[in-house]
Amino acid sequence: MEKEKNLQAEKTPFFESKKGIISAGAAVGIIALLLVALGNPKNMGFCIACFERDIAGALGFHRAEVVQYIRPEIIGLILGAFITALAGKEFRSKGGSSPVTRFFLGIAVMIGALMFLGCPLRMILRIGGGDLNAIRGLAGFIVGIGLGVVFLNKGFSLKRNYKTSSFDGYVMPLSAVGLFILLIAAPAFIFFSKEGPGSMHAPIAISLVCGLIVGALAQKTRLCMVGGIRDQIMFKQSYLLLGFVAIIVVTAVGNMALGSFNLGFADQPVAHTDGLWNFLGMFLVGWGSVLLGGCPLRQLILSGEGNSDSAVTVLGMVAGAAIAHNSSLASSAKGPTANGQIAVIICLVFLIILSIANSDLIKKIVKR
Asked: Residue 165 — pLDDT band, cuts 50, 70, 90?
């Protein structure tokens, strides 16, 4: 039996092994620390939601002057996944799995993330920096995933996708190249923050390379914050969860070594201390991401692999960021807004209806 296990371990590709996912998580943690050291906001080496929000602002979709910048990390994540998928013959143009629903789910997930002030990846980076508000977010995230799993077990599905035209899969990578050209050219119609989080960033070349590396690693390992907890709950599989843990451990150790670890609730960078809405914001993100089949990071990676459904989700998140800032839904260091609280509740109602309508529960209700 022991020999069989050893043989099986030898046959498993490195990036599909536990050592591979732990190594990838550790690399992501180190890169996140590097980006902060070189200029990114604290505890924000990576934040998919925040960076997509900044891009939305740079393109003029919202006019919050402190969060406008074309983030090279997002460009790198898409292109890193694209290049790696092509090299590994895993690039597939596919789509058609409830695209309109996915677009609105993307909006809902973004509203939840901006209530909390961070995506799942930034949540664990905040934990690694000592931000205890993120622990409350993690609790909501886990509960939201757990509820999503309940509906998955009840047959929830957005239906299968289909092979599409080859060009369809290249749209997001080409869009990423277009964004990079706009970043370098900096035409007058592109907005860049002069102060606030949007003005804080590592050098463009380094940010791009870091994004490329993380995009490649995430593509090879299937790294996903939601997938790790979902798989542990549903299948008792810890593979993806180990990457999650590795990022926290590395960033915590790194922040302590750099003297930037700040344990507590108060005085945390780009964060607020309202426990209930930190919980509910990430509850919404966790639940919505389970229904989508992956966290915001995973959606970006899949879009780089040619999945147009994930591309639609990413566009939904960008639209959600614009809506959030144009309608005063996004939180700030002072706390959540009343508009944001109402929006989160509306989004939760949307998820309840969607979850029931797309699961076996609707059949039972109709029969009655």
From this structure: confident
Contact 287, 280 (CB under 8 A): no
Name the CA radius of gyration of the chain, rounded: 20
Q: Is residue 1 included in any domain, yes or no?
A: no
Q: Which amino acid is at 132?
A: L
Cα–Cα distance between 219 and 83 in angstroms, integer?
A: 10
Give the chain's domain count.
1
Domain span holding position 71: 14-367
Residue count of the chain, please give it.
368
pLDDT of res. 364 = 66
Whether 55 and 72 have beta carbons less than 8 Å apart is answered as no
Cβ-count burial of 229 within 10 angstroms (0-12 exposed, 13-18 middle, 19+ buried)? buried
Q: How confident is the model over 244-264, as pLDDT tens digits?
A: 999 999 999 999 999 999 999
Residue 9 included in any domain: no
CA–CA separation, 141 vs 116, rounded Å? 11
DSSP secondary structure of 269-332: TT----HHHHHHHHHHHHHHHHHHTS-HHHHHHHHHTTBHHHHHHHHHHHHHHHHHHHTT-S-B
Strand partners, 95: 162
Model pTM? 0.95
Q: How far apart are the first and last CA of the chain?
A: 52
d(CA 178, CA 156) in angstroms, rounded, equals 36
Residue 6, domain member (yes or no): no
Round to whole Å and give the CA distance between 313 and 299: 7
Which residues sit opposite 162 in a β-bridge? 95
Reference 222, options 292, 302, 157; nearest CA is: 302
Is 7 a member of any domain?
A: no
Contact 113, 278 (CB under 8 A): no
Question: From CA 38, how far away is CA 31, in angstroms rounded?
Answer: 11
